[in-house]
């Protein structure tokens, strides 16, 4: 899982307490993911995660409320870094191209094996699948907000809203096609590029 990093030059100096809390949260998340992959999502208990991370069960609940929260923490971390990249985009770049580029960049960081492992975890839990829909809605809103920061003209907001919506749709279609592929597996980034190409050619 990736660590949430603020955009360069925009965050206040991190104090010792905040740094230790961030590092502890990251350690718990990494420990949990390792156990999920080794023992399965349902086969991993909160007690096992806490023990392996070197904390008490009570301390665990001061960082995460459930196992689902740990998985979503990783998704939110990737989303935050994607938004940070988008905010650095030149307003001269077409919005759809900019969103495609940052999405492909983020997804390309993960190997096919990592992607498949996380995908299998998501599919193994009905509660995770349900919460993933909420995650997509949050990601769409975050994309829209970031684009409004880059392309500031008020008259463009309706178009930017549509770009956010179709971009999340393209990502979901791409990941579905990637999941269902047979034979020699292609990268998720390749499917995502193809989805955006299909989107642009169909407009």
Automatic annotation (TrEMBL):
DNA-binding region positions on the chain: 45-64
Renumbered residue ranges of the record's region Disordered: 1-24
Pfam families, alphabetized: TetR_C_14, TetR_N
Alphabetical list of PANTHER family matching this protein: ACREF/ENVCD OPERON REPRESSOR-RELATED, TRANSCRIPTIONAL REGULATORY PROTEIN
Domain HTH tetR-type, residue spans: 22-82
Keywords: DNA-binding, Transcription, Transcription regulation
GO MF terms held by the record: DNA binding
InterPro entries: DNA-bd_HTH_TetR-type_CS (IPR023772), Homeodomain-like_sf (IPR009057), HTH-type_Tx_Regulator (IPR050624), HTH_TetR (IPR001647), MftR_C (IPR041347)
Family annotation (SUPFAM superfamilies): Homeodomain-like
Tree of life domain: Bacteria
Protein's recorded name: Transcriptional regulator, TetR family
């Amino acid at each position: 899982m990736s660590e949430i990093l603020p955009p360069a030059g925009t965050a206040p100096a991190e104090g010792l307490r905040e740094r230790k809390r961030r590092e502890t949260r990251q350690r718990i998340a990494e420990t949990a993911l390792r156990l999920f992959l080794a023992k399965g999502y349902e086969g991993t208990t909160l007690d096992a995660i806490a023990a392996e991370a070197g904390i008490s069960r009570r301390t665990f609940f001061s960082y995460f409320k459930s196992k689902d929260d740990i998985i979503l923490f990783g998704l939110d971390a990737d989303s935050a870094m994607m938004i940070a990249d988008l905010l650095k985009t030149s307003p001269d770049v077409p919005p759809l191209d900019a969103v495609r580029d940052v999405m492909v960049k983020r997804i390309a960081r993960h190997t096919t094996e990592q992607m498949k492992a996380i995908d299998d975890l998501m599919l193994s839990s009905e509660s995770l699948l349900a919460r993933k829909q909420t995650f997509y809605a949050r990601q769409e809103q975050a994309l829209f907000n970031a684009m409004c920061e880059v392309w500031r003209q008020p008259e463009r907001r309706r178009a930017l809203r549509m770009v956010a919506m179709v971009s999340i749709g393209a990502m979901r279609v791409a990941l579905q096609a990637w999941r269902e592929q047979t034979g020699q597996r292609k990268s998720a980034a390749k499917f995502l590029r193809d989805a955006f190409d299909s989107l642009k050619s169909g407009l």
